[in-house]
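re: ur question from earlier - yeah i can do the single chain one, its not a big deal. heres the input i used so u can compare w yours
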Amino acid sequence: MLEVKNIEKYYGSKNNVTKALDRVSFTVEDGDFMAIMGASGSGKTTLLNCISTIDAVSAGDVLLDGESIAELSAAKLAQFRRERLGFVFQDFNLLDTLTVEENIGLALSLNHSNPRTVKEQVGKVAQKLDITEILGKFPYQISGGQKQRAACARAIVAGQSLLLADEPTGALDSRASKNLLEIMTRMNRGTGATILMVTHDAYSASYAGRILFLKDGRIFHELLRGERSRSVFYHEILDVLALLGGDVSDVI
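and the output i got, formated as tokens:
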């Protein structure tokens, strides 16, 4: 589904250049649940931004279904973002002036979908994520966990096939974090959604089936969960984080 080919990303000017990504390559298959980990400044959010087209690569390429994202026209790029990509951010990015229902269905409405269709699709995804009872409320009237579930609903309501999550549990308590991760797991297994999740948290990463560890803009290591339990996988993640150097508590 997704192929990242030798991408590099530079920031700054001639006299002060920072290399955020250094020849990063990997592939993501349909239905994968992948976590991207690393210490602060390792390049993980930059990598997600390049995949999502929020940022452009300095070198290399990102291919979706064999098509280069960099070669898409502005119109096709906008369509790609609307129809193929779902975003879940740490700070939710819900619009305070819209109800939860309107926030979830916003992309569908912008695509001029039939209002009845929008309502039906929003209702279906809200039921899956157990937020039907808050659809008529505004973001300031609901909890952080409910906001995050609403953000997940907005990300998948139009049937987007690629879900990008940047520290999705960062603003949640442990109970809400666990609920969200279980919801994402159900989305992955139940709807076949492909998920790329940036996280600094080993517990969150243990829900993924595959983890890429970044260090200084390069892939440092990769872990595959396979048939191992999440508990065993979690401790393997901690071992790799320790190898990254420094205090493990700095990156988990």
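Residues 8 and 59 are 5 Å apart (CA to CA). not sure if urs matches, ping me
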